[in-house]
Design brief:
Length: about 425
């Protein structure tokens, strides 16, 4: 845990604002001069990052004196911060092997050296002790698709730095991880993940990958998470990706339509309406029962750059995108917007004094800018042990652990601990 700096050790507090800024500028220009004439490139970058960090810190201290303003973490950029994401050993905290990129032999580790810098404030690094204190006695549930599991496993790994966990439940089919629960006995806290890629009740492909499509019931919730809903104090919902898969949608016995499966001759209803309905139904359920915080995570885009899932180079970038280098496409924007709108709508319906707090964990932009953070071919162990084949399974959707998804939890922490 990082104690907040005592005032007496922080000279900036004793200076008028203008002097502090001039000092920062002076330091900056001296450091730049030094860099330009004398240092090797690696050292240059390190010094430069430290200078930027100092300037950022100084700036955010001035800003935070104004106080009270909520920070928008959704806009910003990734800045080089050596080691920022090297926080745990994913093998030790037993994440899904397909996301344990270091174990699987990914040779480049530069993707662990970036920190998200929001546009108008500083995002503090994850503080496991503070997070556990915030969820003491509580049940934190991640409900949704495999990105939801990716974030849950990141959280468990991050928390192990402060407290040991016990696995309370895991799927009998070990690789599936459709329902897992971890306990942190020191704080009487539990973290669960519920596989519910449509939030709604679904059978077919989402249960058995060799089936051609899904049958989704837009009048009923996924059974396992819905029956546990009354035990959940913090719920993080993330279910977008499967809405793009082929499915037939039902309301009771009535067929509402289908998406992506024209051979069945049902009306094509797209992905937007089912997504809205699934979120609306879920939020309705979570609006009653107990006082809690419901967090809606927005769409985390994929980076299959050439639209091929079996190409080992589909996501082989080594650095984040820079501002303006990559824009979201209209579908990605829409998937994000629907979730934001449904969060706003349910907050309005429940009113400001409601017992349930609704928040958006808006990760779309920060995730979109990290094409370098996916396992790619390193979803399998030592994929190039026998040379480089033309085709091999590649994951440009989930993030390596540790990796960019840890930032989702840094923001989740701010959401859970901020003043209300
Ligand atoms: C993580 O821990 C495992 C098991 O203890 C060890 O074999 C491995 O080298 C560690 N990985 C890293 C990246 O430190
Ligand atoms: C999965 O679906 C396939 C194709 O329909 C079927 O042959 C298989 O038995 C199913 N597996 C399970 C475990 O239900
Ligand atoms: C399902 O049918 C019921 C009864 O006709 C109707 O009230 C409801 O709006 C329908 N739901 C959807 C998602 O179409
Ligand atoms: C869909 O319509 C086509 C053309 O009318 C027909 O040949 C086909 O059998 C229909 N498929 C189903 C599953 O009803």
């Amino acid at each position: 845990m990082k104690p907040s700096p005592a005032r007496s050790t922080n000279p900036v507090y004793f200076l008028p604002k203008s002097v502090g800024i001039w000092l920062a500028c002076g330091f900056l220009s001296m450091a730049l001069l030094h860099l330009l004439c004398c240092s090797p490139r690696g050292a240059q970058e390190a010094v430069f990052t430290q200078v930027l960090q100092y300037a950022d810190d100084t700036y955010s201290k001035f800003r935070s004196r104004g106080g009270g303003q909520r920070c928008d973490y959704s806009e910003g950029r990734w800045v080089w911060a050596p080691g920022h994401a090297r926080r745990y050993n994913a093998t030790v905290c037993d994440v899904k092997e397909a996301q344990d990129c270091l174990r699987n032999g990914r040779p480049d580790t530069g993707y662990l050296d970036w920190r998200w810098q929001p546009a108008g404030c500083r995002l503090p690094a994850f503080d496991p002790a503070a997070f556990l204190s915030a969820v003491r006695g509580k049940h934190v549930a991640f409900v949704g698709d495999s990105m939801s599991r990716n974030q849950a496993e990141s959280l468990v790994c991050l928390l192990t730095a402060a407290s040991p966990y016990r696995v309370v439940h895991r799927d009998p089919v070990r690789y599936k991880r459709q329902f897992m629960r971890w306990a942190f006995p020191t704080h009487d806290a539990t973290v669960s993940v519920y596989w519910a890629p449509y939030l709604a009740r679904a059978t077919g492909k989402s249960e058995n990958y060799s089936m051609p499509y899904n049958l989704v019931h837009l009048d009923a919730l996924g059974d396992r998470w819905a029956s546990d809903a009354d035990t959940m104090d913090v719920v993080v919902l993330a279910a977008n990706h499967w809405m793009l898969n082929p499915a037939v949608y039902h309301n009771g016995s009535e067929v509402l339509g289908a998406h992506g499966h024209p051979e069945l001759n049902h009306t094509e209803i797209g992905y937007a309406a089912p997504l809205r309905q699934a979120y609306r139904m879920s939020l309705e359920r979570l609006s009653s029962g107990r006082s809690r915080t419901v967090v809606l995570a927005t769409f985390s885009p994929t980076h299959f750059e050439n639209n091929r899932m079996d190409d080992p180079t589909a996501c082989d970038k080594k650095e984040p995108y820079k501002e303006g280098e990559k824009e979201l496409n209209s579908m990605e924007k829409e998937l994000r917007r629907i979730v934001v709108e449904e969060a706003e709508a349910v907050a309005r319906r429940n009113g400001p004094s409601g017992a349930v707090r609704f928040e958006v964990l808006d990760v779309t932009k920060l995730a979109a800018m990290r094409p370098d953070g996916h396992p790619g071919p390193y979803m399998n162990r030592d994929p190039f042990a026998n040379g480089v084949p033309q085709k091999m399974p590649t994951d440009c959707l989930h993030f390596c652990l540790p990796g960019p998804v840890d930032t989702f939890n840094e923001i989740l922490q701010q959401i859970l601990t901020k003043r209300q």
